[in-house]
Amino acid sequence: MPATTIHFVRHGQVYNPEHVLYERLPGFHLSERGVRMAQATAQFVAENPATQSLAAIYSSPLDRTKETADIVCQAVNQARRVRQEKPLSVQFDQRLIEAGNNFRGKRIGRGDGALWRDGNWRLLTNLMKPSWGESYRSIASRMTDFTYEQVARYPGQQILVVSHESPIWTLRHLLETGRPEHNMFLRHAALASITSITFDSSTQKVLGITYADPAGGVQ
């Protein structure tokens, strides 16, 4: 029974001293700590027998995920050269992008541009929908489209996907509970963590889900 494993990696910490809700805005890059987090996860992926034999690497097209994916890809290719294997390149897919958020560009805190000004708080009526942006069902739809497409494309192989907290957790919650809606404050997908989902390549049934946090101790 061939099995396909997709390793979903969340990007590293973002440099955001103004505490802006950056959503899909350009220009938000990894912080110095975020780079170190991505490097720790990259080393884990390159050295761990359970993750080192990748057939492809995909990423959301946003700056922070592209940078994380590039760091992982460099480490993976360094290990592949030692094994005399063909190097991989990062492929981008719009379906992996961050969830849409009506608060984009607002700041968490006080002063001009703060989230709580101009009546924005009125959108905070339903944590499970969510009422302030793209629905969890929409996120789940695009993530499952991408996921099952790759399961069919890479039977019996492993791929790595760099995305964002909300898409990764929404997909996992759907696969584990049958519904995408969840409480955002109860997510379990730390920065630069790896959520690995293994599927039966023939039936697309989930065989197992594991989680690793290689960058959890990075300062």
TrEMBL record:
<dbReference type="Pfam" id="PF00300">
    <property type="entry name" value="His_Phos_1"/>
</dbReference>
<protein>
    <submittedName>
        <fullName>Phosphoglycerate mutase</fullName>
    </submittedName>
</protein>
<dbReference type="InterPro" id="IPR029033">
    <property type="entry name" value="His_PPase_superfam"/>
</dbReference>
<dbReference type="InterPro" id="IPR050275">
    <property type="entry name" value="PGM_Phosphatase"/>
</dbReference>
<dbReference type="InterPro" id="IPR013078">
    <property type="entry name" value="His_Pase_superF_clade-1"/>
</dbReference>
